[in-house]
Write the structure tokens for this entry.
Amino acid sequence: MKLAEALQERADLNRKITELTARIKFNCLVQEGENPDEDPAMLLKEFDSCIDRLRYLMTAINKTNSKTVSNGRTLTEIIAEKDAVSVMLSAYHTFIAEMGKKTDRARYSEIKIIGTMDVPEIQKKADFISKRLRELDNALQQANWLTELIED
């Protein structure tokens, strides 16, 4: 199995676990004399099975990421950089949005709010960060489809 396939399966399992949690919650209490729409014990059995598979995949994915080298760096290192760059980009977008807010004044005697940063310069930096994020994501996607999952 390719690493990319394991990542897709992990995402599917996470969605299924969320769905099963909601279904168990919905069916774990009923009015006396009524029956649940679905058997919560069977749902719980399926939930436990999904958790076991998720644990297995997460272990294999983490092993693979830590042992696979692409362009001189492990996939774990590339993922860490991508996560950090993503946080940085989110913050820059927040700064840009905040600086774009307008404050209206009814009279000239009211306090005037002015920006303290150079918006075009911050936007240029955000564009650079965005490009770096795309490059990292592309490198990871390529490595994910070329790498066999390490399953012990």
